[in-house]
């Protein structure tokens, strides 16, 4: 049986996982689960795939896992992928883990809150966020972006050293999300701009495929300005 990935490519962690298996040449089958249609909340999905009704999840020949970072680590170890993705060297691996631990609270949460409150909630409810709360979420997101610009990318080509790793897949999957809300994360951040181009080029031809839905939404919303 081939590895099954349950994803919706609107989900940042699902995109990171999809990019990883594609670029690392891990044989797999993508099983699209639509968040907008509520397919992740069906009883069948909860009973058989993800007990908490979330995305992503995997079924690796009967071995089922949830939580994207844990899944990426498991796949890197099992499928003997190129070492740069998740290095076996204990110090290099620790640096990758260091970013992965940091990003969950310090990148994912502020960027997700900005996206949810500037795009998703207004779309679903028809109500716009008041200016004070909007500025709060924007400020929190920009603090995170500035940390990536001035700390993580200060002395290296990638988030962890000078080779691409799973840290970059996770980082860029999150950092692309604000484009849907017409926010340019690269404005005034030349290191992020250069890093994004570098990672995008490294991950082709899969990058454009994985980000197809996001690009479509970003273009659609940009046309409304």
Description:
With 225 residues, the protein is of the alpha+beta class. It has 2 domains: 3-81, Glutaredoxin (3-Layer(aba) Sandwich); 90-223, Glutathione S-transferase Yfyf (Class Pi), Chain A, domain 2 (Up-down Bundle). The chain is built from 9 helices and 4 strands, in the order E-H-E-H-E-E-H-H-H-H-H-H-H. The protein has helices at residues 12-23, 43-48, 68-78, 90-125, 131-152, 166-175, 190-203, 206-210, 212-222, and strands at residues 3-7, 28-32, 57-60, 63-66. 36% of the residues are buried. Homodimer. Its EC number is 2.5.1.18.
% residues in beta strands: 5-15%
Query: Any idea how many domains?
Result: 2
> What is the molecular shape?
globular
**Residue runs with pLDDT of under 50 for 5 or more positions:** none
- Known CATH architecture of the largest domain: Up-down Bundle
SSE topology string:
EHEHEEHHHHHHH
CATH level-1 class of the largest domain: Mainly Alpha
Helix content: 55-70%
The biggest sheet amounts to: 4 strands, mixed
Mean pLDDT: 95
Task: Break the fold down into its secondary structure elements and pairings.
Elements: E1 3-7, H1 12-23, E2 28-32, H2 43-48, E3 57-60, E4 63-66, H3 68-78, H4 90-125, H5 131-152, H6 166-175, H7 190-203, H8 206-210, H9 212-222
Parallel strand pairs: 1-2
Antiparallel strand pairs: 1-3, 3-4
GO cellular component, one term: cytoplasm
Catalytic activity: RX + glutathione = an S-substituted glutathione + a halide anion + H(+)
GO molecular function, one term: lyase activity
């Amino acid at each position: 049986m081939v590895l099954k990935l349950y994803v919706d490519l609107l989900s940042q962690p699902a995109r990171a996982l999809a990019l990883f298996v594609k670029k690392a040449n891990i044989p797999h089958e993508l099983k699209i689960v639509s968040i907008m249609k509520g397919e992740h909340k069906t009883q069948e999905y909860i009973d058989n795939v993800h007990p908490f009704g979330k995305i992503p999840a995997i079924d690796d020949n009967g071995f089922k896992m949830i939580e994207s970072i844990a899944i990426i680590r498991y796949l890197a170890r099992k499928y003997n992928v190129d070492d740069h993705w998740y290095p076996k060297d204990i110090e290099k691996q620790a640096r990758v883990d260091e970013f992965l631990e940091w990003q969950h609270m310090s990148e994912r949460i502020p960027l997700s809150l900005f996206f949810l409150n500037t795009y998703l909630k207004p779309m679903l409810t028809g109500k716009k966020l008041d200016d004070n709360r909007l500025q709060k979420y924007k400020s929190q997101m920009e603090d995170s972006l500035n940390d990536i610009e001035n700390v993580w990318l200060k002395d290296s080509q990638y988030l962890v050293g000078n080779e691409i790793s799973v840290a970059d897949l996770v980082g860029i999957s999150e950092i692309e999300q604000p484009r849907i809300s017409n926010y340019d994360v690269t404005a005034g951040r030349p290191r992020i701009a250069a890093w994004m181009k570098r990672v995008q080029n490294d991950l082709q031809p899969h990058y454009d495929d994985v980000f197809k839905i996001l690009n479509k939404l970003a273009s659609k919303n940009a046309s409304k300005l």
